[in-house]
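General statements about sequence and structure are easier to judge against a single worked case. For one protein, we set the task of working out the structure tokens from the amino acid sequence alone. This step matters because it turns folding into a mapping between discrete strings. The amino acid sequence and the backbone structure tokens for this protein are reproduced below.
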Amino acid sequence: MVHPLFSPEVKLMLDEKNAAGLREFCESLHPATVAEALDDEFTPEQIWEVISNANIRTQASVFEYLTPAQQVLMAEKARPQMGALLTKMSHDDRVDLLRRLPGRVTETIMRLVDEADRKDIATLFQYGENTVGALMTTDYAWLPGTLTAAEAIDQLRQQAPDRETIYYIYVLDDPTRRGDGSLSPRRLLGVVSLRDIILAPRHALIRELMETDLVTLKHSDDQEMVAQLFARYDFLAAPVVDDQFGLLGIVTHDDVLDVVRAEATEDMQRQGAVGPITGDYLEASFANVWYNRMKWLAVLFLLQMFTINAMASFESELERVFFLLAFIPLCLSVGGNAGSQAATLVIRAVALDQVHTRDWLRVFRREMLMAASLAAALGVLSIARTYFLTPDNIERKVPSGYFWNLNLAVTFAVMGICLTGAIIGAMLPLLIKALGRDPALMSAPLIATLSDVLGIVIFFNIAKLFFWRMLVVPPA
């Protein structure tokens, strides 16, 4: 966390025009700490004034840690300065920024960037959002395989200041010329770690040190797949190649962390029937949040109407055993809760690639056994609850000789609804996955609503079994 005195101190230095103090503030602290101190109380002009006292590389580092909203406002307020700053930003981060800017602002800033950077930005711009291409950076360290370890270290010293990471160094061959005269991307031959180069004999060739058994990505792969790859292999970075194994760029671990956070947030929002919502909670468009919440509330509202229809079909029975109404909320809540538990476990297992649609029968068997065990335990609790804790005013309304019928009806209804809710919660996400959609669409409120509708039917049909005499011949 940022020290609470940082912001007031920075404002004081701004008022005093203390350029030396502002430069020390920017360059002596981590860029994330500086960015956090420049909170929403600072205007874009003030933030520019603060960071302009530092060197351009530090400016770019601090800028990358500002919130997306602050970045957009600053880009609109200081376009000439943005040209120089863009050249020092991470290649993927600057493309993300330009995507968020209005078109006219992007065009103005692009005129301030040199031709090489414009081409790089245009190349990354062509990849669709939520793909590996949108995540990757072309800012990587590379070497030809013919260098010795000593020569490689000398060359890396020259590359390092302008590279996002040099933990992995990619070994490339010479580019080839296409039919249209353009050069194709250099083909990826292998990868060598900086550690291996440092520890190798000085005259060892890079091609002898490199690892050729590579795990690569395609630019069109979904970004969610990247998170699974990095988790499986503990990568710090992974290469992105084309169909001819030409190196297009790399994806680094910091971008994967952003993906993991974004995907987890989206899944949580979907499971809560409120998303996905783009942007931070307080910064998201009111209309967008309203629409995403309202569409789910409308669907759930319409589905809940079937509960009314189900209860209406048992109207005549309710008139004779009206005392059962008090136990409906108790029984229905069990189905929603059991379904939400099962859905949460299955959806998360699918997200972590632990469960696939082909495993549906195994999931069904497991959840059947689990639900039956849970239902049995709840049945015992239901007997105790109904027998010992039924309110006196309800107990007096139960006809003589039917109290145990009530106890057993509630118990078996709880067990049946628990079993049904758990099966629905486990199977629906797999069905949605089989249809090619996100399993998180099976939100907890939706499963609870479906369980309510089926729960009403189960409850009253079980009640009929234990109160059939009353329903056929009502007591006097």
Summary: The first strand starts at residue 140 and ends at 144. Residues 141 and 166 are 6 Å apart (CA to CA). DSSP finds 24 helices and six strands in the chain.
